[in-house]
């Protein structure tokens, strides 16, 4: 019988066409614009050789057990893998594909946008215009002023591809210095993704600890993976160490930042502002959530990779990873478990 693959949503363009062309596979695909329900996935995973999942699909012992022992491959339509129990995959010798390279540029673009929006009070300013308050805002030399990107020290929590692609974009703005913290504090980044670290035009230095990074930075960019050691690393203590004119940007995962501490830091003007693409408990952010009452916080609904070109490429690579996993061939990008 044909190998079974399960795909938890309809894909787009080339990726869907590639999948549709595979008559040698038994393809079970969720057929609605809403996310596939957990029960549907658990039911249909039975006897699957490969599963293509979205960020919203948990890949855990329960799913692996429901699938059974012929499961060889998981392909995730994402760069993050915190929705996947990687230890469980490793134990069962199941390979994991993901799409880290496809979305680097799109997320780095958005990161720069959030930095500028936070520093230049874009959300706050537009909010006033939308509320018809512009007539009550007579011009003043300091009207809606904020810190300037040129001359800023930028601190990266996590210094992988997306962070380094952000750095590349920030250099022409005239930033002054970069500090970064990885899982090996004080040590040089292990990968120089864009050849920026060898002979940098400005100091680019590993921080000894988060305290140093928080204290030195005018801009803090959260770009690390969510793990037990990064959860709430941006805490009340972190905000206390930050400069009053500094901004925080999170394009990684919500739980890296303690939301209550962020609300308090904004309330008490401990920091200048924030730009978030992610937040704890997303997407369940009701209209009365305290973060939405903060004029100095821009919150976007996790759209970092949302350009048409990037989503097309992520879809294609996810299918290619799935097919390569079934055949035991090299994936476009595979997580080393
Ligand atoms: C987005 O957050 C992703 O992990 O792809
Ligand atoms: C990510 O860049 C890390 O090493 O923490």
What features would you describe in this structure?
Keywords: Oxidoreductase, Signal. One of its GO terms (cellular component) is cytosol. GO terms for molecular function: glyoxylate reductase (NADPH) activity; hydroxypyruvate reductase [NAD(P)H] activity; NAD binding. The structure is a single chain. With 337 residues, the protein is α/β, with parallel strands linked by helices. The protein folds into 2 domains: 118 residues, NAD(P)-binding Rossmann-like Domain (Rossmann fold), CATH 3.40.50; 196 residues, NAD(P)-binding Rossmann-like Domain (Rossmann fold, 3-Layer(aba) Sandwich). The protein contains 11 helices and 12 strands. The strands form 2 sheets. Strands 8-7-6-9-10-11-12 form a 7-stranded parallel beta sheet, with helices on both faces. The protein has a 5-stranded parallel beta sheet with strand order 2-1-3-4-5. Strand 1, helix 1 and strand 2 form a beta-alpha-beta unit. It is globular and about 75 Å long. The mean pLDDT is 97. The structure holds glyoxylic acid (GLV) (2 copies). The site of one glyoxylic acid (GLV) has 6 residues, from loops. One glyoxylic acid binds next to loops.
């Amino acid at each position: 019988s044909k190998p079974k693959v399960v795909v938890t949503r309809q894909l787009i363009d080339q990726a869907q066409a590639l999948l549709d062309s595979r008559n040698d596979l038994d393809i079970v695909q969720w057929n609605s614009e809403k996310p596939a329900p957990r029960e549907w996935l658990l039911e249909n995973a039975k006897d699957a050789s490969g599963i293509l999942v979205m960020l919203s699909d948990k890949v855990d012992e329960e799913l692996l057990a429901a699938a059974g022992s012929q499961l060889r491959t998981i392909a995730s339509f994402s760069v993050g893998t915190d929705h996947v129990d990687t230890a469980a995959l490793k134990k069962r010798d199941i390979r994991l594909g993901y799409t880290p390279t496809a979305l680097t540029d799109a997320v780095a673009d958005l990161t720069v946008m959030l930095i500028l929006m936070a520093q230049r009070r874009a959300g706050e300013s537009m909010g006033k215009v939308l509320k018809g308050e512009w007539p009550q805002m007579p011009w003043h030399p300091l009207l809606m002023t904020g810190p300037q990107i040129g001359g800023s020290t930028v601190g990266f929590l996590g210094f992988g591809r997306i962070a380094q692609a952000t750095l590349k974009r920030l250099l022409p703005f005239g930033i002054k210095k970069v500090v970064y913290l990885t899982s090996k504090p004080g040590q040089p980044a292990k990968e120089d993704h864009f050849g920026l670290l060898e002979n940098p035009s400005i100091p680019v230095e590993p921080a000894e600890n988060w305290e140093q990074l928080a204290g030195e930075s005018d801009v803090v960019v959260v770009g690390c993976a969510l793990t037990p050691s990064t959860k709430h690393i941006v805490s009340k203590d972190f905000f206390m160490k930050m400069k009053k004119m500094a901004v925080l940007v999170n394009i990684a995962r919500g739980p890296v930042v303690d939301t209550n501490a962020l609300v308090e830091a904004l309330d008490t003007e401990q920091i200048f502002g924030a730009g978030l693409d992610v937040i704890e408990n997303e997407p369940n952010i009701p209209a009365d959530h305290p973060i939405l009452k903060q004029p100095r916080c821009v919150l976007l609904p996790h759209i970092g990779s949302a350009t048409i070109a990037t989503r097309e490429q992520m879809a294609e690579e996810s299918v290619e990873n799935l097919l390569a996993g079934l055949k035991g061939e090299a994936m476009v990008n595979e997580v080393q478990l």
